[in-house]
Amino acid sequence: MYPLTDTFTFQAPTNITFGPGAIGQLGQIVAPLGQRPLVVSDPGIAAAGILQQVLDALGPAVAHVETFTEVEPNPSIETVDRAAAIYRRGDGDCLVAVGGGSAMDVAKVVAVLVTHGGGVLDYEGIGKVPGPTVPVVCLPTTAGTGSEVTQFTVITDRGRPFKLTVGSPYVVPTAAVCDPHLTLSMPQPLTAATGMDALTHGIECYINTVTNPLAKTYALEAIRLIGRYLRTAYATGKHLEARYHMLLASTMAAMAFTRTRLGNVHAMSHPLGARFDVPHGVANAVLLPYVMEWNLIAGMETYPQIGEALGEPVMGLPPREAAAAAVEAVRQLAADVGIPERLRDLGVTRDAIPALADDAMKSGNVLVNPRLTRREDIVHLFERAF
Ligand SMILES: [Fe+2]
Q: Per residue in 327-363, pLDDT tens?
């Protein structure tokens, strides 16, 4: 429950165009924003033919297009720098990102660098970007990150190694073109990992200490849609109805969390990405049931609602059992879509836990977790999940 005395603000400034075939409107959406876009993507998107669809949709509407397709999972500062160099060499005036969170985050940070100068580290943290950037238009090809509507980007500093955040209202993309057709070719592991990332966004936003009633509405509906459609999207792949609702859920969950932040799952998953290159969604999916179990005593009001949204018959159950049903529903969903049960299954080593805990404690997400969290709690949670 949120305190009635709190004042909250809610902004969803990204212009969203959503639906099967939405990519057909890309040219008319980009043209007023810029005539020399840099398209940022990754090798998988290029190989799947999606990049070509984007170029075909853009071509007639703009004067010149450059492409950068070298974005890797957990993208690095060096990748951002290389993309920014190509933007400058091509005399770009806007960015188009096509891909998952990695491609979108790279494009969003490139927009900061080419507008305001300096390097990625100059903008590390929240609120360091001094003003608006060149326009960014995002086309998500996964249903998870929601980066197409958020004020956050995550870039890996391989030197430390650490996943840093560049967060600012000026990083929110100008427009999002969400076409579920672009998500149809996702392989099963990616469908599972990104879908569980979106579920984590919904749940962490719904239960954290700075949520608000509008954010909770988006978050709960996202949770409901994921509970209903993730298994189908995973099991049958090219199921447009399931893909449509998963993409809707991921965008809604991100609209919910972009101003409210998340919780311990995201605080803990970023170091796993930085130190062991674990995909973001997989790390979240493994951690989520353990963190939910630990947070349960702070979720006696919120967990039953989550359980109900996930289809659990919680009516009439004693409060603790109703809350526990939410944890069990999440554990079962993760298992059904092939998520491993433990961090050791992902190549994580136990001796890294102290360093992982130190890094997790640097995240602002710990501060909004519903249950007060100290470093030893994070160590305990990593041990449990190990
Ligand atoms: Fe996430």
A: 999 999 999 999 999 999 999 999 999 999 999 999 9
Q: Any idea which residue has 């075909």 for tokens?
A: 56
**This prediction's pTM:** 0.96
Q: How far is the CA of 267 from the centre of ligand 1 (A)?
A: 10
Question: Measured at the alpha carbon of residue 285, what is the angle toward residues 205 and 291, in degrees to the nearest 5?
Answer: 60
49 CA distance to ligand 1 middle (Å): 26
Reported as a single tens digit per residue, the pLDDT across 204-262 is 999 999 999 999 999 999 999 999 999 999 999 999 999 999 999 999 999 999 988 99
pLDDT at 2: 61
Task: Mark out the alpha helices in 258-374 (DSSP H runs).
Answer: 264-276, 280-295, 302-309, 319-336, 353-361
Question: Of 132, 165, 183, which residue sits at a domain end?
Answer: 183
- How far, in Å, is the centroid of ligand 1 from the Cα of 67? 26
Tokens at 28, concatenated: 């008319």
Residues 374, 233, single domain; the answer is yes
End-to-end CA distance of the chain: give it in Å, rounded: 32
Query: 60 C-alpha vs ligand 1 centroid, how far in Å?
Result: 35
Do residues 324 and 337 both lie within one domain? yes
Three-state DSSP class for 14?
Answer: coil
Distance 162 CA to ligand 1 centre (A): 16
Domain of residue 55, CATH code? 3.40.50.1970
Residue for token pair 């806007």: 94
Q: Which domain holds residue 241?
A: 188-385
6 within a domain of the structure (yes/no) = no
